[in-house]
Write a structure and sequence with these properties.
about 200 residues, alpha/beta, Rossmann fold, 7 helices, 5 strands
Length: about 200
């Protein structure tokens, strides 16, 4: 049974453009995978601690030698990595903050980029053969050829870090211009409609 992992990284709830577009992606994916399962990981509904010393020690220590503190530190990481391994397709809905990723998405990345789980000691990615779609909502417009294109460090970073763990089939939908909605210059529905065709095409 095909499985889609949906990762949500916006704090805006029902006001979020990235969440709305990700929802459209999920609905289209379901239409194309009648018996597919969807795992939803809302990072703002997850107790997501930052990586600390017990986490690092546990990651580099064989499981049979883990202390109770190491086991507790790696519990969330194990769950998140399990979701990634189970998924055939992955969609990440995220905003852009200061030209890069939100801190909560970086925390998720730090939990899932883990030696002997998602990459080897020789730096081979272990999560191969999966398709990733990133829906990236931003206040400015960073589309190729735009004046602000070079400021978008988020796309390059996400492709780099996902590729490091074997996720090399990555498609990014840039949904720029959300500041127009915030300032009342653009209707939210119009902006969502503008990017929905690219989102639904990516879900096929």
């Amino acid at each position: 049974m095909p499985t889609l992992l949906t990762v949500l990284a916006s704090p805006r709830g029902d006001y979020s453009i990235s969440r709305a577009l990700t929802s459209s992606f999920v609905e289209e994916w379901k239409k194309n995978h009648d018996r597919g399962a969807v795992i939803t990981r809302d990072l703002y509904q997850t107790n997501l601690p930052f990586v600390d010393l017990p986490w690092i020690a546990g990651a580099y220590t064989p499981a049979e030698q883990h202390s109770p503190e190491m086991q507790a530190a790696l519990e969330v990481s194990n769950e998140l990595i399990g979701e990634l391994k189970q998924a055939d397709d992955i969609v990440i809905g995220t905003p852009m903050y200061n030209f890069s990723i939100p801190a909560i998405l970086k925390a998720w990345i730090d939990h899932v980029v883990r030696i002997n789980e998602t990459f080897t000691a020789s730096y081979e990615g272990l999560l191969k053969g999966k398709k990733v779609t990133i829906i990236l909502a931003s206040g400015g417009v960073y589309a190729p050829g735009s004046q602000m294109e070079s400021y978008n460090s988020e796309s390059a970073y996400l492709k780099q870090i996902l590729g490091f763990i074997g996720l090399t089939d990555v498609n990014i939908v840039l949904a720029g211009g959300t500041s127009g909605v915030d300032m009342g210059k653009t209707a939210r529905e119009d902006l969502i409609a503008e990017f929905t065709p690219a989102v639904t095409a990516a879900a096929k």
